[in-house]
Write a structure and sequence with these properties.
This protein has 19 helices and 14 strands. The protein is α/β, with parallel strands linked by helices.
Length: 530
């Protein structure tokens, strides 16, 4: 139900539930009925859920904290106020913290930060931190003492951004293993003391470390793909019609359009996230949608709020970029992989929010796709610039120049100028070792530019490496590695790869492209009529 006590704009910067309600500065879209279902069980009460960044995980944990502390006055008019919630009669002490505060650039910085986090918990509980014992042992002391002091003899523990401490070390396996060893001992204390913990919730962006670090926490119930909670984080189209309708009406007025058109545009930009294969429900990114409604404009707010460090670092460590993201197939097992050093890129991009479930093929196989226009924009600009270590403004300028070149100067000019610049931006340590690798980068760049291009097109005598079509003609590509553009063009002509398009109204051209591994770049492509 809608909270009538709040003003029109939804939250874009307040992630503390109590402050949000008491300040009255933002609208809270009521998710408390779902939170009640999530938290009411006393048997399945040790939970984990992952969602992309900027999806309201911190606000969710803050709301759970207020619920377990029994602050009923904050929930007046919300769904849970009329439900038989246990804390209305008997609150439970809550200890909430984020593992981003245990982050560090080195192993020593991480270890000291984790120690500082546990010292603060001990101080909050009113016990001394013992310098003669390990951080994990002191965490164990804290959990036992906190439960003993609790009126219910139990406590609630809420942990945000559990995956942050490993993000810096995904390409440094020795340090990664040291960090995981420490975290294993730390998190294991939660299982040892599970009888004293009424409710445990861990959240993060990925499931990279769930098994390797959490082998001592195999009792956690994973709610990430649970259909019951597919809409727990994010706004549904129905909520745009209900609690957020006024906000969209204001947005529509600012842009001189009606409500239906405004809603359609907002959904195209920010909707499309499907978090359960067993539910067709989709949600909008709540923070991006909130920023759009507050600013009155459609824009890419995803990149402006920074990257998921663990996602970018893992892709850098893998030293590769998928060329074609839409329609990528993945199995349930792949999406549930947890080994940080071997995690498949489809799973990483799915968990990071760059891809979502677009189709369920069977009980074990899904097709992934880009959820919306904001993420498409992010992939074209911020994602690639971060991975290649190019300044985002420089990369955006490169793409803008290439798009303009494609429109004004044509395909040949684009290939000879902009494609060479794109290959020159690939980091030196990323080895392009064969024709397949070189083609992948070529296709990625052409798609980011917006070219209507497809790979591996069949003809009677073989497959063209790629076919690009625009208003000037059809361009049939043959790609070579360590040879010459003339050899590439000769193969395309000999095999008559362009024959399927000769009867169309547009001219057909053959394009020979060669990647020179010695120069780490492409030669000037050759473009000739078929």
């Amino acid at each position: 139900m809608e909270n009538d006590r709040t003003i029109k704009l939804p939250t874009t910067s307040i992630f503390d539930f109590e402050r949000l309600i008491l300040d009255g500065e933002a609208k809270y879209v009521d998710k408390t009925a779902l939170l009640y279902e999530l938290a009411k069980s006393k048997t399945d009460s040790q939970l984990f859920i992952s969602r992309p960044r900027r999806f309201g995980k911190s606000l969710m944990l803050s709301t759970l904290k207020a619920m377990f502390e029994g602050k009923r006055e904050l929930f007046k008019g919300l769904a849970i106020d009329s439900l038989p919630w246990e804390a209305w009669n008997q609150p439970t002490p809550v200890y909430s913290f984020t593992m981003s505060s245990a982050n560090g650039e080195t192993y020593e910085e991480f270890r000291m930060a984790l120690e500082g986090l546990v010292r603060n918990l001990c101080r909050e509980c009113g016990i001394e931190y013992d310098d003669c014992r390990t951080t994990a042992a002191n965490f164990d002391d804290f959990l036992k003492s906190a439960a003993e002091k609790s009126p219910t003899k139990q406590i609630v523990v809420l942990i945000d951004e559990y995956d942050e401490p490993v993000a810096k070390f995904l390409d440094d396996l020795p340090t990664l293993n040291r960090v995981r060893s420490v975290l294993h001992d730390f998190y294991e204390k939660l299982k040892v003391n599970s009888g004293s913990i009424r409710f445990l919730m861990l959240t993060g962006v990925t499931k990279l470390t769930k098994l390797s670090i959490f082998s001592g926490l195999n009792h956690l119930k994973d709610r990430t793909m649970d259909p019951r909670f597919a809409t727990l984080l994010g706004y549904t189209p129905e909520e745009l019609d209900g609690p957020l309708r006024e906000n969209i009406e204001v947005f529509a007025e600012k842009n001189g359009i009606d409500f239906a058109e405004a809603k359609k545009s907002l959904l195209a930009w920010y909707d499309g996230y499907r978090f359960s294969p067993d539910s067709e429900a989709k949600v909008c990114n709540p923070v991006s949608l909130g920023n759009a409604l507050e600013s009155g404009r459609l824009a890419n707010f995803w990149e402006a709020t920074g990257h998921a460090t663990i996602v970018v670092n893992r892709i850098k460590a893998a030293k590769e970029i998928p060329a074609d993201l839409n329609g990528m197939a993945a199995t349930w097992t792949q999406l549930d992989v947890c080994a940080a050093e071997t995690m498949p890129l489809p799973a990483l991009l799915y968990q990071g929010g760059y891809l979502t479930i677009s189709e369920v093929i069977d009980t074990n196989t899904f097709r992934l796709g880009i959820p919306n226009m904001e993420i498409s924009n992010s992939l074209a600009e911020g994602y690639v610039s971060s991975i290649l270590d190019i300044g985002m403004s420089d990369w955006t300028e490169q793409l803008a120049d290439a798009r303009e070149g494609l429109l004004r100067r044509g395909v040949e000019a684009l290939l000879k100028k902009n494609l060479k610049a794109a290959f020159a931006a690939v980091p030196h340590e990323w080895k392009i070792e064969d024709e397949k690798e070189a083609k992948r980068y070529f296709l990625l760049f052409m798609k980011l530019v917006g070219a209507d291009i497809s790979g591996e097109r069949q003809s009677a005598r073989g497959r063209a490496d790629a076919v690009l079509q625009d208003k000037t003609g059809t361009y049939v590509f043959e790609f070579k590695y360590g040879k010459t553009p003339r050899e590439a063009l000769g193969q395309a002509r000999t095999k008559e790869y362009g024959n399927p398009w000769l009867d169309t109204s547009l001219p057909v051209f053959y394009v020979g492209v060669n990647y020179d591994p010695a120069k780490r770049g492409i030669d000037d492509p050759l473009v000739e009529p078929a």
